[in-house]
Structure formats: structure tokens, C-alpha cells
Amino acid sequence: MGVERLHHVGLAVRSLDEALKFFSGLLGLEVESTIVVEEQGMRAAWLKLGDVKVELMEPIGEEGPVAKFLAKRGEGIHHIAVNVSDINAISEALREAGIKLVYDKPRVAHDGSLYNFIHPKSAHGVLIELRQEGAAERGFTFLEHTADQYVLAYGPDLRSAFEEAGRALFATMTDLSTVEPKVEVEVEVEGEDVKALLYNWLEALLLKLDIDGLLLSKFKVLEISGPKEGPLKLKGLAWGEPFNPAKHPQYVGVKGITYHLMEVKELPSRVELRFLLDI
């Protein structure tokens, strides 16, 4: 139930680009990903520092917690985050001890982790993030359809749901466990809305097989950004290896992606994507 290890240190900065010049350009920290967190009103970059991460946070408005922190205290350490084994159990124990938490219930982070904060007033002036990794549900399933492959992909946020959609696409065609992540490819697409972005994401992945002969089994959406009313941009990575008929079983071929029956449901802690693959 207790604290396991330090996960990351969060730093509030006025300019993410300028901060990256120092932390990545001069200090050499590797940039893992850059994301936009709308509910927190910020853009963030995750950097690796051994087994610990550094989160650089830049406000994208004037009302978010990072913007308010900068206005009051200036740049510097915003919070520290620790991994916990059971965030619900430790939260209950802390509340019973009179410790104040920021949220009533844990929230879902961009990577599917659950998180909450111990209020600085209860932690000697330090904002402490409690983080339970791998706690939120994600995956995909195939729904009944008379002719084509009907897919439900889901995750705690839009990025993870898009990643599961990619897995479902290639799981339609082969056994993903036989596809080793030997080759890395970059994928960048745009769309006027989330449905168009999903269509273009899946189409771009399918083209990696049709044109380059690559089967893909691992996906990472680094960033989905853009205004609330289009156009949206997605940057991601995918890993796989060239198709080998002696190694990779052949299920059915996917001719293309369709808009027919496509749905996007964005719930408080779950995003569901439904789409039809023409087989």
C-alpha cells in the first residue's frame, strides 16, 4: 500500500521550447514525449533521467494550475511524484489520518496511470503526486458484423484508445505475438475532427503494410493537439517487422478503413472508438 519509488519531478516553466534547450540540449536528457493536457491547461514534455523522469510544464492559458503557480512563485519545482501500489487504499489511509487530497477520486493520466495529489498544506509545503501505474483499463474487442470487421477500441484517454485501435487493425490480419518490434516508424496525420483523425491514423498504419511490407504490433501516440474545433494533429510511433509468411500467420486482409458505423465516445475516464474495417 505504501510508496514504492520516485516517479518524476515536475517543473513549471514559462517556455517549453526554451526549457528543452537547457534540459535536453545542454544537459542531454532524452525527450520521451510531448503532450497537451487540456484539463490541466498545459503542454508538457517528459524527459528521462535514469529511472526517474522530469516533467516540464508550460501553461497554455491563464487559468490552469501551472499558470497560477508561475504567476505566484515563478519558474521552479512544482511537484514531486511517487509510485504507489494501491492509490485507493493509500488515499483512504491518508484521509483517515487527516491528510488533505486535491481530488475526491483519482484521475486518469495520459499513460493510463491513476493519480491524485497530497495538498501542500498537509505535506510541509510540498505538492506530492501519488501515482499508480497501469491501473486504467485499455484494450480492444471485435464486435459482431455480417461481413466486415467491427472493432471496439478503448482506453482511459484518446491517445491510448488510438494505440489500441492500431493494435486491433493488425490483430485482424495476424497474431500480434509473432510480430517483433524491430523496426520503428514515425506517423504524423491530421484530421478535421476526431473521426477524421482516427481514419487517417489507421489508413497511415495500413499503408506501412501495403507499401513497405511492415507488420506493426506496438504503437505510441506521442501527441494529439489542436484547437477544440479542428484541425487536429497526431504524432506517433509504431514498431514492427517485415511480413514473413513463414513466421506470421495470415488471417484476413484489410482492404481499407471506412467511416461507416464509426463512433467516438469520450467519457470522464474512458474513451471508446468504434470503427469498421473493410475485409
Description:
There is one protein chain. Strand 9 and strand 10 form a beta hairpin. The strands form three sheets. Strands 2-3-4-1-5-8-7-6 form an eight-stranded mixed sheet. It has five helices and 15 strands. The longest helix is centred in the last third of the chain and has 17 residues, at 194-210. It folds into two domains: 3-132, Roll (2,3-Dihydroxybiphenyl 1,2-Dioxygenase, domain 1); 139-278, Archease, Possible Chaperone, Chain: A, domain 1 (3-Layer(bab) Sandwich). The chain has helices at 16-26, 65-73, 87-96, 158-171, 194-210; strands at residues 3-12, 30-37, 42-49, 52-59, 76-84, 107-108, 114-118, 128-132, 139-143, 149-155, 183-191, 214-225, 232-242, 256-267, 270-278. It is α+β, with helices and mostly antiparallel strands and 279 residues long. Helix 4 (158-171) runs parallel beside helix 5.
Keywords:
279 residues; alpha+beta; 2,3-Dihydroxybiphenyl 1,2-Dioxygenase, domain 1; Archease, Possible Chaperone, Chain: A, domain 1; 2 domains; eight-stranded mixed beta sheet; four-stranded antiparallel beta sheet; 43% strand
Concise structural overview:
By secondary structure, the chain is an alpha+beta fold. The protein contains five helices and 15 strands. The protein folds into two domains: 130 residues, 2,3-Dihydroxybiphenyl 1,2-Dioxygenase, domain 1 (Roll); 140 residues, 3-Layer(bab) Sandwich (Archease, Possible Chaperone, Chain: A, domain 1).
